[in-house]
Specification:
Elements (H helix, E strand, L loop, with lengths): L7 H4 L8 E4 L9 H10 L4 E4 L10 H6 L3 E6 L6 H8 L4 E4 L2 H13 L3 E4 L6 H4 L3 E4 L5 E4 L5 E4 L2 E7 L3 E12 L4 E2 L8 H7 E12 L18 E4 L2 H5 L13
Parallel strand pairs: 1-2, 1-10, 2-3, 3-4, 10-12, 12-13
Antiparallel strand pairs: 5-9, 6-7, 8-9, 10-11
């Protein structure tokens, strides 16, 4: 039952080239930076990543992206990540853009054993009809486009069929965790981390505070340990290393 692994390097040692990863985080919040850095240092490449975004400010998944280690991204947001945009438009990176709520539900469905579901999001657009650029040819043309999806009517409303997502591994970050893998997330870090954790066949969690079993009130658990296979306890310095993407300040007169 003790799922604690001594180091991040040991935790990701069996992630092979070409693996698919569901990665938690929302902007710079709740990103498993230590595990991502361990993958980078191991030289793992050809990765297929499923995450809301692909890092920012040269941190998170941007570390792997800038090194050319990511082959495909399934996500919802490019944002201010200029290297992500450059690789995509240059035809170096395959990108499947998905409505954010649909991405969240596809991850949850995969983790719950649901192969597919119908949603109204995307009906009447290229999300359902196909033709979204997945890969450019480097000259402004599209070399690979999204296929059309099944659309079905229920009670007079059209819905598009979306597939659940399962990945080889998942990397997540939690505020607290115990040795059995039960996790608690802090505020907005709960947006995608639990869903990514559910989608991974092997889920690895870095935790800012490791407690003994029973140290977390069962009613406070956000993700039960059945979804987590490995736990890495962060050092105080690693736990405190949190970047701020945009600072908002008030100047008093």
């Amino acid at each position: 039952m003790d799922k604690v692994v001594a180091t991040a390097d040991e935790a990701v040692a069996d992630v092979p080239d070409g693996a698919t990863l569901a990665v938690g985080g929302f902007g710079l919040s709740g990103v498993p930076n230590v595990l991502i850095q361990a993958l980078y240092e191991r030289g793992t490449t050809g990765l297929g990543v499923v995450s809301n975004n692909c890092g920012a400010m040269e941190s998170g998944l941007a570390v792997l992206l800038s090194a050319g280690r990511i082959a495909r991204v399934t996500g919802s947001y490019i944002g201010a990540n200029k290297e992500f945009a450059r690789q995509y438009l240059a035809g170096e990176l395959e990108v499947e853009m998905i409505p954010q709520g649909t991405l969240a539900e596809r991850l949850r469905a995969g983790g719950a054993g649901i192969p597919a579901f119908y949603t109204p999001a995307g009906v009447g657009t290229q999300v359902a009809e196909g033709g979204l650029p997945w890969r450019y040819d480097g000259s402004g043309g599209v070399s690979l486009a999204s296929p059309a999806k099944e659309v079905r009517e229920f009670d007079g409303t059209e819905y598009v069929l979306e597939r659940g997502i399962r990945t080889d591994f998942a990397l997540v970050r939690a505020a607290r965790g115990d040795r059995h893998g039960n996790l608690v997330f802090n505020k907005s870090t709960r947006n995608f981390n639990p869903l990514a954790a559910m989608a991974g066949k092997v889920t690895i969690a870095e935790v800012e505070e490791l407690v003994e079993p029973g140290g977390i009130d069962p009613d406070a658990v956000h993700l039960p340990g059945i979804f987590v296979q490995r736990v890495v306890a962060l050092t105080p310095e690693q736990a405190a290393d949190k970047r701020i993407e945009q600072r908002t300040v008030t100047v008093s007169s």
